């Protein structure tokens, strides 16, 4: 039940409340979380944010609290992540266009892969033949040096140098073959990815109706 004294207090204070509302109000919270209404926002509380209320009690605009350093850093990190994702997406789209322009079908892609692998395989075969020839030559040089030693003769310097040179050539040829084999593996992996992507893009396009 409303007491007569409460009604009297409300009647006496109503003109003051009305006059403040007609001039506009700001709703803001202090550091303790207490809500305040006033015709101005204290400068010390401006960074906490506030809401401007019109003469008829309608919220006109809300000023959000100032962002902390941690919030600003987080937003910057999210923006950088968004830009990286957009860059990767753009690169993927460009690669897709090249892939579809370069190859008309899966068979075309597979044929290109096999041709490149076969070309490197030919180099590997040639390198292995070369290694075999050099190993035979190295065996002959070593045998010559051994015969001289068995005969009690010194091995001439040129023979030592020839043996060292052939051994170096064999090592270089073996290293070259290792590089070529790695290149073959890289080509297979790259074309496997391209083939999977090509199939995905063709599936997205759907069957041709022409």
Characterize the structure shown:
- The chain contains 4 helices and 4 strands; from the N terminus they run αββββααα.
- The protein has 210 residues and is an alpha+beta fold.
- A 4-stranded antiparallel β-sheet has the order 2-1-3-4.
- α3 packs antiparallel against α4.
- The radius of gyration is 42 Å and the shape is elongated.
- The two termini are 84 Å apart.
How is this structure best summarized?
This protein is of the alpha+beta class and 210 residues long. The protein has helices at 4-22, 69-102, 106-150, 157-205; strands spanning 25-29, 35-38, 50-53, 59-63. A hairpin with a 5-residue loop joins strand 1 (25-29) and strand 2 (35-38).
What attributes does this structure have?
4 strands; 4 helices; alpha+beta; 210 residues
Q: Helix coverage percent of residues? A: over 70%
The structure class reads alpha+beta
Proportion of β residues?
Answer: 5-15%
Average pLDDT figure: 82
Q: What shape does the CA trace take?
A: elongated
Strand order of the largest sheet: 2-1-3-4
Number of strands: 4
> How many individual helices?
4
The whole-angstrom Rg is 42 Å
Parts with pLDDT < 50 across at least 5 consecutive residues: 6-22
Q: How would a textbook summarize the main sheet? A: 4 strands, antiparallel
In whole angstroms, how far apart are the ends? 84 Å
Note the run of SSEs as H and E. HEEEEHHH
Indicate the topology.
Layout: H1 4-22, E1 25-29, E2 35-38, E3 50-53, E4 59-63, H2 69-102, H3 106-150, H4 157-205
Antiparallel strand pairs: 1-2, 1-3, 3-4
């Amino acid at each position: 039940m409303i007491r007569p004294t409460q009604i009297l207090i409300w009647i006496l204070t109503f003109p003051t409340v009305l006059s403040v509302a007609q001039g506009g109000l700001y709703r803001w919270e202090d550091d303790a979380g207490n809500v305040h209404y006033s015709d101005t926002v204290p400068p010390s509380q401006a960074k906490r944010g506030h809401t401007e209320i019109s003469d008829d009690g309608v919220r006109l605009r809300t000023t959000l609290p100032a962002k902390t350093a941690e919030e600003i850093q987080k937003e910057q990190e999210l923006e950088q992540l968004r830009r990286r994702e957009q860059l990767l997406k753009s690169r993927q789209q460009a690669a897709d266009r090249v892939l579809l322009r370069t190859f008309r079908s899966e068979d075309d892609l597979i044929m290109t892969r096999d041709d490149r692998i076969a070309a490197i395989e030919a180099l590997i075969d040639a390198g292995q033949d070369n290694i075999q020839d050099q190993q035979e030559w190295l065996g002959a040089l070593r045998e010559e040096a051994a015969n001289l030693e068995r005969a009690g003769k010194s091995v001439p310097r040129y023979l030592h140098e020839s043996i060292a040179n052939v051994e170096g050539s064999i090592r270089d040829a073996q290293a070259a073959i290792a590089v070529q084999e790695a290149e073959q593996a890289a080509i297979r992996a790259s074309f496997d990815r391209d083939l999977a992507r090509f199939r995905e893009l063709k599936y997205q396009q759907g069957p041709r109706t022409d």
